From TrEMBL:
It holds the Pfam family ScfRs. This is Transcriptional regulator, XRE family. PANTHER family: HTH-TYPE TRANSCRIPTIONAL REGULATOR (PTHR46797), HTH-TYPE TRANSCRIPTIONAL REGULATOR SUTR (PTHR46797:SF23). PROSITE patterns: HTH_CROC1. Keywords: DNA-binding, Transcription, Transcription regulation. InterPro entries: Cro/C1-type_HTH, HTH_RamB, IrrE_HExxH, Lambda_DNA-bd_dom_sf, ScfR_C, TransReg_Diox_bact_type. Signal peptide: none annotated. It comes from Acetobacter tropicalis. Residues 14-68 form the HTH cro/C1-type domain. Transmembrane segments: none annotated.
């Protein structure tokens, strides 16, 4: 079976490029050897950009295909689809094609509509629980959206972390280099303190004793990350504050969570400096276990860093990264490709991230197809720490890293798979509420916002089906 290629509608980016280069449509059409009318159709998203034309644009203007990505639009379309599935909007039913047209034509208006809907949902929740008022947009959601807008890459901070790493004396290893730096530059010693675990802390600075206290027996990669966090907090607070002041979230709690996120981002970028890490990832074909051993970090740290490799002109594979617990609660979600996780309701049970909980510590590989017909290679595994005592209740967590099938062959996880044979591709959805697949035996509730037909002459794998959308 031939390989699926997702159609790329990149009209706004194409128009932005032309205006940036001060070209008329006739000028650019002549450069690309196409007609001005065809270019006009491309810019208005009436036609997708064909692969050969995409290559020509990249070569002519020294760009990468990722520059033309319609990832943000795909995420917005998915959010619109879920929102329009709410029964309160049943009389304003829109087919998917019209939602996509609206997002392409007026993305700001669609973003405002989604913000209004979330405020409406908040008011509903507040009426049902007046004792628990909270802001219309939860701070973690605001930060998640902000990070997503940056495709999980912050250039200034990433470069600062890389420069810091390159100036370290690594003769005795990274851990010793970080401890030496903290001692020489900040007068801070490091010491183990068993009492931290009892207080639920992973590190604490005793300013009176000029000492960094760390729990005993924690994994070496955790110690590395915590030391890098402290360095980021001590040395780069001004840069982090500048980023937040210039473009960060405005609400107080969201701003503070954004500060925590950027601190963690710096730590990850310090432990896995961009240029070195990208070269190693490409050389090792994105083998997470090999990369983990090579850099002395954890499976989760490597996976998260792989999802941030979007430096202009030096992009790695665009991955999505998702972390959730055994109950299906999403703890982290970032995407550098078209993949978009449901905002409302739980993830699809057919996803291999749930199978990972049944095989702790083992990698699960899956080819899956989303409802927009995009096919992804997904790598899932449990992460986290084992219990130290019988009474411990360690949190059961798994992560999944995914890339489009067009990038799959660049990874070791595609070995042994026939990427052209889609018979074993697992159809997954954005959660039952917004999923349009009627023939799924895993469906737990009907799709919202659609009229149902229970039928009388036949019965399917579920006792109802949604009537087709009106054109």
């Amino acid at each position: 079976m031939p390989q699926t290629r997702t159609k790329l509608f990149a009209g706004p980016r194409l128009r932005q490029l032309r205006q940036r280069e001060t070209l008329t449509q006739a000028n650019l059409a002549d450069m690309l050897d196409i007609s001005p009318s065809y270019l006009n159709q491309l810019e208005r998203n009436h036609r997708p950009v064909p692969h050969h034309l995409l290559q020509k644009l990249c070569e002519r203007f020294n760009l990468t295909p990722a520059w033309f990505s319609n990832t943000k639009e795909a995420h917005t379309v998915q959010a619109m689809r879920e929102t329009m599935a709410d029964p309160v909007l049943k009389n304003a039913s829109l087919p998917l094609a019209k939602m996509a047209d609206a997002v392409h034509a007026n993305p700001d208006l669609c973003a405002a509509f989604l913000t209004l809907y979330r405020a409406y949902k908040f008011e509903q929740e507040r009426e049902s629980d007046t004792l628990s008022p909270s802001p219309p947009l939860e701070p973690y959601e605001t930060v998640g959206d902000w990070v997503q807008q940056h495709r999980n890459y912050f250039h200034e901070l990433d470069c600062a972390a890389e420069k810091f790493y390159e100036n370290l004396n690594l003769q005795n290893g990274l851990a010793e280099a970080l401890k030496t730096y903290l001692l020489d530059q900040h007068g801070l010693h490091t010491q183990q303190d068993p009492a931290l675990e009892e207080g639920g802390l992973v590190w604490r600075i005793d300013r009176h004793r000029r000492t960094i206290l760390l729990p005993p027996d924690q994994p070496p990669e955790s110690t590395l990350f915590y030391l890098a966090q402290i360095i980021g907090q001590r040395d780069h607070t001004r840069l982090i504050s500048s980023i937040l002041r210039r473009e960060g979230p405005k609400e107080k709690n969201a701003l503070e969570l954004g500060r925590v996120y950027l601190g963690n981002y710096f730590a990850g970028a310090l432990l896995l400096p961009y240029t070195r890490f990208l070269h190693a990832a490409q050389t090792m074909r994105y083998d997470i276990e090999r990369l983990r051993r090579h850099f002395g970090t954890s499976f989760e740290q490597i996976s998260h860093r792989l999802s941030t490799l979007q430096r202009p002109g030096m992009e790695g594979i665009p991955f999505y990264f998702l972390k959730l617990d055994i109950a299906g609660n999403i703890l982290k979600s970032f995407s550098a490709n078209r993949f978009s996780q449901a905002r409302f309701g739980g993830p699809c049970p057919l996803w291999n991230i749930f199978r990972a909980f049944a095989t702790p510590g083992q990698v699960q590989v899956q080819l899956s197809q989303t409802t927009d017909d995009s096919i992804y290679l997904n790598v899932a595994r449990t992460v986290g720490h084992e219990g130290v005592t019988y009474t411990d209740r360690p949190r059961q967590i798994a992560i999944v890293l995914g890339c489009t099938i067009s990038d799959a062959a660049k990874t070791v996880y595609a070995d042994g798979l026939n990427l052209n044979d889609h018979r074993l591709v697992v159809p997954i959805g954005p959660g039952c509420r917004a999923c349009v697949r009627d023939n799924c035996s895993h469906r737990s509730l009907p799709v919202s916002g659609r009229m149902l037909d229970t039928g009388s002459d036949a019965r399917g794998v579920v006792p109802y089906r949604a009537l087709p959308e009106k054109p």
